[in-house]
Amino acid sequence: MNEQQHLDIARRWFTEGWLTNVELAHHTGVYGGVEATGKPVEVSDIALWRFENGRVTEIRTLQDQFGLLTQIGYLPAGVYAA
Protein backbone atom coordinates (compact mmCIF):
# COMPACT_ATOMS: atom_id res chain seq x y z
CA MET A 1 0.00 0.00 0.00
CA ASN A 2 2.12 2.96 1.20
CA GLU A 3 4.55 3.82 4.00
CA GLN A 4 1.64 4.61 6.32
CA GLN A 5 -0.39 1.50 5.65
CA HIS A 6 -2.48 -0.02 8.40
CA LEU A 7 -3.43 -3.68 8.49
CA ASP A 8 -5.88 -5.21 10.92
CA ILE A 9 -5.46 -8.90 11.62
CA ALA A 10 -8.98 -10.30 11.25
CA ARG A 11 -8.11 -13.91 11.96
CA ARG A 12 -4.92 -15.65 13.03
CA TRP A 13 -4.24 -19.28 13.79
CA PHE A 14 -1.10 -21.33 14.45
CA THR A 15 -0.93 -25.07 13.84
CA GLU A 16 2.00 -27.42 13.34
CA GLY A 17 4.52 -24.68 12.58
CA TRP A 18 2.24 -22.67 10.27
CA LEU A 19 1.12 -19.17 11.18
CA THR A 20 -1.83 -18.04 9.04
CA ASN A 21 -3.26 -14.51 8.95
CA VAL A 22 -6.18 -12.87 7.24
CA GLU A 23 -5.44 -9.15 7.03
CA LEU A 24 -7.91 -6.33 6.40
CA ALA A 25 -6.86 -2.98 4.95
CA HIS A 26 -7.96 -0.19 2.62
CA HIS A 27 -6.17 0.59 -0.64
CA THR A 28 -5.12 4.14 0.25
CA GLY A 29 -1.85 4.52 -1.66
CA VAL A 30 -0.19 3.45 -4.90
CA TYR A 31 0.38 -0.32 -4.93
CA GLY A 32 2.04 -2.05 -7.87
CA GLY A 33 1.44 1.01 -10.02
CA VAL A 34 -2.30 1.09 -9.21
CA GLU A 35 -3.49 4.44 -7.85
CA ALA A 36 -5.42 4.38 -4.56
CA THR A 37 -9.02 3.19 -4.87
CA GLY A 38 -10.06 3.44 -1.22
CA LYS A 39 -11.48 -0.08 -1.56
CA PRO A 40 -11.35 -2.43 1.43
CA VAL A 41 -9.20 -5.50 0.79
CA GLU A 42 -8.86 -8.85 2.55
CA VAL A 43 -5.61 -10.74 2.05
CA SER A 44 -4.61 -14.18 3.33
CA ASP A 45 -1.01 -15.03 4.06
CA ILE A 46 0.91 -17.93 5.52
CA ALA A 47 4.19 -17.65 7.42
CA LEU A 48 6.55 -20.57 7.93
CA TRP A 49 8.80 -20.16 10.94
CA ARG A 50 11.94 -22.23 11.48
CA PHE A 51 13.24 -22.57 15.02
CA GLU A 52 16.64 -23.76 16.20
CA ASN A 53 17.54 -23.92 19.88
CA GLY A 54 14.39 -22.00 20.76
CA ARG A 55 15.18 -19.10 18.40
CA VAL A 56 13.64 -18.08 15.08
CA THR A 57 16.23 -18.70 12.35
CA GLU A 58 14.13 -18.28 9.22
CA ILE A 59 10.75 -16.89 8.18
CA ARG A 60 9.14 -17.49 4.79
CA THR A 61 5.82 -15.97 3.78
CA LEU A 62 3.30 -16.54 1.02
CA GLN A 63 0.60 -13.95 0.33
CA ASP A 64 -2.42 -14.07 -1.98
CA GLN A 65 -1.21 -11.39 -4.43
CA PHE A 66 -3.68 -12.43 -7.16
CA GLY A 67 -6.55 -11.91 -4.73
CA LEU A 68 -5.20 -8.53 -3.66
CA LEU A 69 -4.63 -7.32 -7.25
CA THR A 70 -8.13 -8.49 -8.24
CA GLN A 71 -9.72 -6.64 -5.30
CA ILE A 72 -8.06 -3.33 -6.22
CA GLY A 73 -9.06 -3.71 -9.88
CA TYR A 74 -5.63 -4.42 -11.40
CA LEU A 75 -6.64 -7.93 -12.57
CA PRO A 76 -10.09 -8.87 -13.90
CA ALA A 77 -12.13 -11.07 -11.55
CA GLY A 78 -12.22 -14.79 -12.36
CA VAL A 79 -9.26 -14.84 -14.74
CA TYR A 80 -6.99 -16.70 -12.34
CA ALA A 81 -9.56 -18.96 -10.69
CA ALA A 82 -8.33 -22.48 -9.97
Describe what this molecule looks like in 3D.
The protein has one helix at residues 65-71; strands at residues 8-15, 18-26, 40-52, 55-63. The chain is mainly β. It has a domain at 18-72: Nuclear Transport Factor 2, Chain: A (Roll). It has a 4-stranded antiparallel sheet with strand order 1-2-3-4. The longest helix has 7 residues, at 65-71. The chain is elongated and about 45 Å long. The model has no long low-confidence stretch (mean pLDDT 76).
Number of helices: 1
User: What is the correct CATH architecture of the domain at 18-72?
Assistant: Roll
Range of strand content = over 45%
Top CATH class of the domain at 18-72: Alpha Beta
| Strand order, largest beta sheet | 1-2-3-4
Unreliable runs? none
In short:
The chain has one helix at 65-71, and strands at 8-15, 18-26, 40-52, 55-63. The protein is mainly beta and 82 residues long.
Keywords:
82 residues; mainly beta; Nuclear Transport Factor 2, Chain: A; 1 helix; 4 strands
Write the layout of secondary structure elements.
Elements (H helix, E strand, L loop, with lengths): L7 E8 L2 E9 L13 E13 L2 E9 L1 H7 L11
